[in-house]
Every structure is written in structure tokens, then in C-alpha cells.
């Protein structure tokens, strides 16, 4: 039965059943595959025939995961990687070469910043940062050698947002690739390709898994572009393991219902904290006070599960709040069933200078709250007593 509904696609898309007629897809823990004869082996290696050659290239579990993600995101093809950062590195590596230029949102994950400043800069790739809240500045940064626009929206941890339709039109006008890190939104809340993005990237470690179990990443886009990604990835080797692919594919079956609860809880937390006297700033896409609230409502189904706050009193107050939490976990991860608190300035974004952190709104009092699936009364009670 064909369906256009997210939940049905996520649950009912799976690999072809074997002779055992299993209801749930099995795990294909194999590194390699048998060929019927020498001619089939030749044809597969020559790309004249589709099929599995080696699990660094493809595996039934990774293929199922990719197929689901393509259907949910509106992409033609994809490649699954061992981590989210492997997905970003592989995308950069596949399309950027010595002499190329990239325009990136200033507010990016700390490791992405490290790739741009300490890895690709050494390989002759230059870049300029632009602010998500200043779209009028983006076009002026595009140069004749600009190859790519890269953006996180919503951003980590500032929860800044930019109009994807605007960026899609800008990329089309200047014939550059638009790559969107869609990790915080997931395909359930946002589909960047619909707005003109060429590639959408996920750290599947986050909401795709959603339970803090496995690492993974995925790169999604047009078939021709993904062919370039695969050509790079086959030899650089960032492949996702079959076991992790199996976990992630099964996790997609509950993504919609999990995201509904994450979003419901996060909005209530944001509304509560916005009125709290010890909190000087709350950032959440579906709060009317968010600077890009109208854009968020246009391109996102709901606001996501991340709330970023700035507590009064700087780092001492931030530490006091985090140490006072009883149910929340203190962790660098996010998007778990369990609520998590992170201090970005001393963890995920600690390698940025203080000036760089200030430029993207990361203060010493900034705390990223990943709102989990616990009962909302318990989440609010823990926050309330920690702020007391």
C-alpha cells in the first residue's frame, strides 16, 4: 500500500523479506557478499548492476535506513555515515577543493567550526561566516569561487533560524550548493530540500535514534550529488555499521510520536522559563518572542525539543542551576528520551574563543536544555527547584 503519511512510511518501509518471512528486518552482520559468478562480480564492480559488494559501500540495513530517510525528507538518494560529523566532513570533502570558498552560518556546532578553521583551511578552502539574523549580509559574501552555502537551522545552541526559501533562491541565483544541517528539526518538522536545499544532513545520533544508544549520520540529496558523495566516501571509509543502521531504521518508526511529545514538553518549558525572574533570555522557535518566530512557523511543523536559556548571574549561576538539577542529566548529548542540560561555553563550544561565542549568543550563563519525554510536571518541578 502506497502512503504519503510520515508515520506510515517510517514504519512500513523495509528491505525485502527473506525466505524466513521475518516481520521485522533482520540485522545483516556481514562484511562482504557472495557473487553468483565472475561476470556478476565484474558487473557489480563496474557499476553496471546494482547490488551489495562490500559493507563499507552498502548493506541491506544501511540501504533500508537510507531509503526511509529519503522518503521522509523528499530526497532522491543518500549515504549513511558512522557519525553526524562524518556526514559533514564527507559532504565538505566531496565538494570542496583547494581554492574553493564557502559561506557558513556563524552559529554552527563546535566541531563543524573546527573543521572549517583547522582542517579545510589547511587544504586551501576559505570561508566566511554570516549571521542567521542578518540575511541581508549573505549575498555580499558570495565570491566567484564560492562553491557552497552551509547552514544549521535551528542552530546549535543559539536556536537561531534563517529563511530556507531565501537561501534556496540565493543558492540558485549564484549556482552554489546549499547544504543544511537539519539535525535539530528532523525530517518530521522540516524538509530543507522542499525549500531549495541541495543536501540535507543529519546527526542520526540525535533525534533519529532518540534514545542515546548509537552513533550515526546521513547525507541526503539529488542522485547526481550523492554519487559524488559516495565516490568520496567509498575510499575515505566513514560508513555506518549495519547494527547501528538497524537501530536507526527501527527508531524512525517512533520518530513522529516522539517529536510530538518533545515539542509539546519543550514549548511548556519555554513558556514557563520566559516568566521566571532568574532567567534573562529564553530562545525557542515557537515562542512569539523569538526573533525569527514567523520564519519558524512558516518552515517548521513544530518548534523542536531544544530550549536555550541564559540565567542571571553568569557562569556561577549556570553551574549552580546545573548542579542543582536532580532528574536532568548533565551531558554533552541531546535529543534523548531523558532531559539533558549542557553548558556550551565549557563543553560543546569550548574551543571557540569568548569573542566567537559572544558573536553567536553563547554567554557564560547560557544553558542548552534538551527536553525529554518524561512527564512535564516532573520536568518543570526539577527546573523550578534547581532555579530556587
Structure description:
The structure is a single chain. The chain has 388 residues and is of the alpha/beta class. It has two domains: 246 residues, Aspartate Aminotransferase, domain 2, CATH 3.40.640.10; 133 residues, Aspartate Aminotransferase, domain 1. Helices cover 38% and strands 15% of the residues. It has a seven-stranded mixed sheet with strand order 1-7-6-5-4-2-3, sandwiched between helices. Helix 5 links the parallel strand 2 and strand 3. The longest helix is centred in the last third of the chain and has 20 residues. The protein starts with 5 loop residues before the first helix and ends with a helix. The mean pLDDT is 96.
Contiguous runs where pLDDT drops below 50 for at least 5 residues:
none
Q: How would you describe the shape?
A: globular
Q: Characterize the main sheet.
A: 7 strands, mixed
Helical residue percent band: 25-40%
Q: Compute the average pLDDT.
A: 96
By DSSP (H or I, 4+ residues per run), the number of helices equals 14
What value does the Rg take, in angstroms?
21 Å
User: What is the number of domains?
Assistant: 2
How many β strands by DSSP? Answer: 12
CATH fold naming of the largest domain: Aspartate Aminotransferase, domain 2
Helix-strand sequence: HHHEHEHEEHEHEEHHHEHEHEEHEH
- State the strand order across the main sheet: 1-7-6-5-4-2-3
Strand content: 5-15%
The class by helix and strand makeup works out as alpha/beta
Q: CATH homologous superfamily of the largest domain?
A: Type I PLP-dependent aspartate aminotransferase-like (Major domain)
Measured between the Cα atoms of the first and last residue, the distance is 54 Å
